[in-house]
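Consortium newsletter contribution from the modelling node. Members have asked for a concrete example of what our holo predictions look like. Here is one, prepared for the KG4 complex that several groups have been discussing at recent meetings.
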Amino acid sequence: MSDPLTILGIESSCDDTAAAILRGRDVLASVVYGQTSLHADFGGVVPEIAARAHAEKLDHCIEEALASAGLALTDLDGIAVTAGPGLIGGVLSGVMTAKGLAAATGLPLIGVNHLAGHALTPRLTDDIAFPYLMLLVSGGHCQFLIVEAHDSFTRIGGTIDDAPGEAFDKTARLLGLPQPGGPAVEESAKSGDPRRFDFPRPLLNQDGCDMSFSGLKTAILRARDAVVAEHGGLTRADQTDLAAGFQAAVADVLVEKTSRALAIYLAMNPETPGFAIAGGVAANATIRAGLIELCQKKGVAFVAPPLKLCTDNAAMIAYAGQVRMQAGEADDMTLVARPRWPLDKTAAPMLGSGKKGAKA
Ligand code: KG4
Ligand code: ZN
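And here is the predicted structure:
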């Protein structure tokens, strides 16, 4: 084993096929093949199409990562692969590929929890100190985690139905905007009036850090249909006002719930308090600004890894695998692909399981 460790990471749990090479903290290569166009006609990720595409692309993706890092398989110290949670066909493709490579090379095989990959990324990018509070917010995830160690996570809340990214995507479809919906809704909202429509802020009247976004989707649908019924269609102003109203509601919910999560976290008296965000929705400037302001008020450092490491990628899997290896952990050929795999084994199961599969 060399120092620093050089790890191949493999990710295929949803709709991105990804491979990366990490040496120490240096991301030598990170290749991501998206599948958005394959699923575009279906209004969500189709598991069978995703699994087939992963199986076709994984080898090329790994070859490309090795080539771009200028390395061969013999230069590696280990192979880390997402073993769950996610769409089972995709996770299986990755695990079988990793097992084949490990068997052929004799390299250690390390199964990684996809959510741990996201949750540990702020350590790779910013060396944030344990314990920190993490908000994972994407098309498939929405949860607050207190990250105490590489293998110790406490979930203190999450969505009970849809993830915010799903709600952004659905809102875009309702407003006739392109996919992925997040950036399109954000762009449209820039010229809209967030106060014209009075959208709900679900679960704000209830204690705790759980969230709900499915009612908000329905509210957008109703508001849009009411405008269409009255005027025969949507003007550009209607569209931008609906987008702005929706975005403001999501931002309010995330900021208020983060405030409550921070109160729970700060009660632990962390020495160097830190809050980190990950997932595609973390790209949203309005949401980000609200969270930054909140952290400033509470005296908590705000960390947002670069977007390409916030969204699904394999560098985060390589990093989580590297940390497991350093702790003396590894798997063997009995490693299984798991559709559900909660990070916090003691928390009650999440209820939601949206278009991107189980949220664990
Ligand atoms: O993390 P990610 O790439 O994939 C997973 O879902 O795991 O997140 C994608 C999601 C999509 O639903 C997309 O609409 C949303 O993140 N998203 C955004 C923005 N950019 C991407 N949502 C709001 N504002 C954005 N600027
Ligand atoms: Zn993810």
